[in-house]
C-alpha cells in the first residue's frame, strides 16, 4: 500500500489530491470521529483518516458513482482501523454465538452526545462490536449500511450490536478512564524548549533540537524530511494568529496550537512531537484539522512557568 509520502517525491502533496480533499469537507469530521473512537486516540484517528482519504483518492477509478461516497470511505476506514488495532496487539475475542436479549442504551440522541457518553467505554469492546456500535448508535447509519461497511450481514451486525450494547450497559456504573502518559523529564524539557523557541520563531534553535533525518507530516500538505520542507517559513505567516503551548489531549503530552484573539487563547489543534535518543525525530502537525480537538475527551494547557 502506498503511503502519503508517495504523493510527491519531495513530500509536497499534489494539487489534484488537495482538490479532492476540498470536495469532502462535510464528511471529514465524522470520519475522524469514527477513527478516533476505534483507536482510542484523536491523533491516531486523524492519521488513519488521512490514510483512508489517500487510499480513496488512489482508487477513485474504482468508485461506483451511484453509491454514496461516505459509506465507501467508512468501509475503507473500518479495515484501516482493524489493521491498526491488530498491529497494536489488540486481538478480537472469540465471537459468542449464543443469542442474547435485546438491550437499549440510555435515551441519548444519536450523534455527539452519545459519542462522548460512550467514547471511553467503547474502547473495551472487541473491534467488530466497537465498529458496529459506533456506526449505528453514534453515526446513525442503517443496519444495511453498517453491514456493507464492515463486510458482514444484517444479522451479523444485529448480533454484534446486542453484544456490544450489553457490555456497555454493564460498564455504565464504572466507566474506565484513559491512562495519562507522562514523558521522561529530559523529554519534557526538550518539548518545553521546542515550544519556547517556536514561539520566538527561533528556527535555528528549533532545528538544533531535531535529528538530521527528522521527518515531518503536515496534514493535507506535506510528508517527508523536515529539511526538505518549507515548514518554518510557513509559520512565519501562519493561517491565523497562534501561540504554541505544551499540554495534554486525552492523556497524551502534545504541543497545543492556541488561537489567539485579543486576550483570549483557545485550543485550536495539536502537534505531536516524537522524541528518541534526546532528539526530535518526527513532527506531526494538524493545524489544518481543527476538528481533532472537538472529539477529544480532555484538553489541558500548561501555564508558562
TL;DR?
With 305 residues, the protein is α+β, with helices and mostly antiparallel strands. It has helices at residues 15-22, 27-39, 42-58, 69-87, 112-118, 127-138, 143-149, 154-171, 185-199, 203-208, 231-235; strands at 210-218, 222-225, 242-249, 252-261, 264-276, 279-285, 299-301. It has two domains: 4-171, Up-down Bundle (Butyryl-CoA Dehydrogenase, subunit A, domain 3), CATH 1.20.140.160; 185-301, Nuclear Transport Factor 2, Chain: A (Roll), CATH 3.10.450.
Task: Give an account of the 3D structure.
- The protein starts with 14 loop residues before the first helix and ends with a strand.
- Strands 2-1-6-5-4-3-7 form a seven-stranded mixed β-sheet.
- Helix content is 42%, strand content 18%.
- It has 305 residues and is α+β, with helices and mostly antiparallel strands.
- Strand 3 and strand 4 form a beta hairpin.
- About 10% of the residues have low confidence.
- Helix 7 packs across helix 8.
- It has two domains: 168 residues, Butyryl-CoA Dehydrogenase, subunit A, domain 3; 117 residues, Nuclear Transport Factor 2, Chain: A, CATH 3.10.450.
Amino acid at each position: 500500500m502506498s503511503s502519503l509520502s508517495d504523493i510527491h517525491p519531495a513530500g509536497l502533496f499534489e494539487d489534484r489530491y488537495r482538490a479532492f480533499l476540498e470536495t469532502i469537507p462535510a464528511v471529514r469530521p465524522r470520519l475522524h470521529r469514527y477513527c478516533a473512537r476505534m483507536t482510542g486516540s484523536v491523533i491516531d484517528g486523524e492519521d488513519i483518516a488521512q490514510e483512508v482519504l489517500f487510499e480513496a483518492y488512489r482508487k477513485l477509478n474504482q468508485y461506483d458513482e451511484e453509491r454514496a461516497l461516505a459509506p465507501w470511505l467508512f468501509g475503507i476506514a473500518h479495515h484501516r482501523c482493524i489493521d491498526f488495532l491488530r498491529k497494536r496487539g489488540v486481538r478480537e475475542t472469540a465471537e459468542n454465538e449464543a443469542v442474547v436479549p435485546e438491550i437499549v442504551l440510555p435515551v441519548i440522541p444519536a450523534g455527539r452526545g452519545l459519542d462522548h457518553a460512550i467514547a471511553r467505554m467503547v474502547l473495551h469492546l472487541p473491534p467488530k462490536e466497537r465498529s458496529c456500535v459506533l456506526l449505528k448508535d453514534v453515526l446513525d447509519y442503517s443496519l444495511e449500511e453498517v453491514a456493507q461497511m464492515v463486510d458482514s450481514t444484517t444479522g451479523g451486525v444485529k448480533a454484534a450490536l446486542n453484544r456490544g450494547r450489553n457490555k456497555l450497559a454493564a460498564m455504565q456504573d464504572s466507566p474506565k478512564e484513559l491512562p495519562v502518559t507522562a514523558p521522561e523529564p529530559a523529554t519534557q524539557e526538550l518539548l518545553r524548549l521546542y515550544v519556547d523557541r517556536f514561539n520566538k520563531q527561533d528556527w535555528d534553535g528549533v532545528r538544533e533540537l531535531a535529528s538530521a533525518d527528522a521527518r515531518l507530516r503536515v496534514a493535507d500538505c506535506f510528508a517527508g524530511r523536515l529539511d526538505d520542507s518549507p515548514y518554518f517559513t510557513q509559520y512565519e505567516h501562519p493561517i491565523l494568529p497562534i501561540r504554541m503551548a505544551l499540554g495534554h489531549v486525552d492523556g497524551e503530552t502534545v504541543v497545543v496550537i492556541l488561537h489567539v484573539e485579543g486576550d483570549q487563547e483557545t485550543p485550536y489543534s495539536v502537534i505531536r512531537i516524537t522524541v528518541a535518543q534526546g532528539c526530535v525525530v518526527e513532527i506531526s502537525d494538524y493545524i489544518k484539522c481543527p476538528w481533532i480537538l472537538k472529539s477529544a475527551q480532555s484538553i489541558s494547557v500548561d501555564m508558562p512557568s
